[in-house]
Amino acid sequence: MTKFDEATQAIRVDESTYDVCLDPGYAIGGPLNGGYLMAVVLRAVVDSSPFDHPVSTTSQFHRSPAAGPARVVVEQLKAGRTVAFSRATLVQDGVTQIESLVTTATLGDAEPAYADKAGYVMPPPEECLKLPDPKPESNMTLNARMEMRFDPPTVGWLNGEPTGRPESRAYFRMAEPQDPDPYVLALAVDALPPVVFSAGARGWAPTVDLTWHLRALPAPGWLTLIGGGRLISDGWFDEDVEVWDSAGRLVAQSRQLARVGRG
């Protein structure tokens, strides 16, 4: 079991309840990363499902839970021969933190009937950039849990030279050697810096709603994250992320709605 597996494990209490312990190692300046929190919830959902994989997840982030004990309550809505539907609630101190609707199924390894190619070709990892290590007092502990190499134009905001477009692109893998799986993908779809940074905004940009789809089981190796947005308006922005595996297959897609960074 890797550190990430331990940090996301869900222990069954009864037919619908799971104990979890939210790990402070996945914080972004204080709040815990939304992708990490989704991975925790999905561990419980898949354990309670007759199927193996979370193929579609929609999460609404009511609050920002603190590191420490919490519970996931799973309600089975419907199950058929090939798909099941669940509602999962992350609860801490008796208060709902995150509500998720999750569809589970079991994916195979059949060749796709049609497969698009990535719309953007990344430079090789050795030509991409690693962000500076954050200062300990920043409480950006998430950075130590994953390894990312960024397409240089999309991190120009570090030097006060944003591109003016909402975009972010990077290679991604866990810092501890681990082949990517659906739970790693849940983290990956929310691992990029907010795309509004490249449009000139800064600060913590809290996610309000995030939907992501698992399209295939990923091959070992680097994942490629391609992020972009369509509209920044009235304090809101959208962010779309595609995740491609080392074999060049689209393995996950996400869209989130978030608030423009504060402070």
Helix fraction bin: 10-25%
User: What is the count of helical runs?
Assistant: 3
| CATH third-tier fold name | Porin
Helix and strand pattern = HEEHEEEEEEHEEEEE
- State the CATH architecture: Beta Barrel
Number of strands: 13
Separation of the first and last Cα atoms:
38 Å
Q: Which band does the percent of strand residues land in?
A: 35-45%
Q: Low-confidence segments, ≥5 residues, pLDDT <50? A: none
Radius of gyration: 18 Å
Q: In CATH, what is the class?
A: Mainly Beta
Specify the structural class: mainly beta
Globular, elongated, flat, extended or rod-shaped: what is the shape? globular
CATH homology superfamily = Acyl-CoA thioesterase, double hotdog domain
Residue-averaged pLDDT, rounded? Answer: 96
Organism: Nonomuraea cavernae
Domain Acyl-CoA thioesterase-like N-terminal HotDog: 25-107
Domain Acyl-CoA thioesterase-like C-terminal: 125-260
Protein name: Thioesterase family protein
Which features does this protein show?
263 residues; mainly beta; Porin; 13-stranded antiparallel β-sheet; 3 helices; 37% strand; globular; Acyl-CoA_hotdog
Description:
The protein has 263 residues and is mainly beta. Helices cover 11% and strands 37% of the residues. It has a single domain, classed as Porin. It has helices at 3-8, 34-48, 182-188; strands at 11-12, 17-22, 53-61, 68-79, 84-92, 95-105, 146-150, 167-174, 207-214, 223-228, 232-233, 236-244, 250-259. Strands 1, 2, 3, 4, 5, 6, 7, 8, 9, 10, 11, 12 and 13 form a 13-stranded antiparallel beta sheet that branches. Residues 125-260 form the Acyl-CoA thioesterase-like C-terminal domain. InterPro entries: ACOT8-like_C, Acyl-CoA_hotdog, HotDog_dom_sf, Sec_Metab_Biosynth-Assoc, TesB_ACOT8-like_N. Residues 25-107 form the Acyl-CoA thioesterase-like N-terminal HotDog domain.
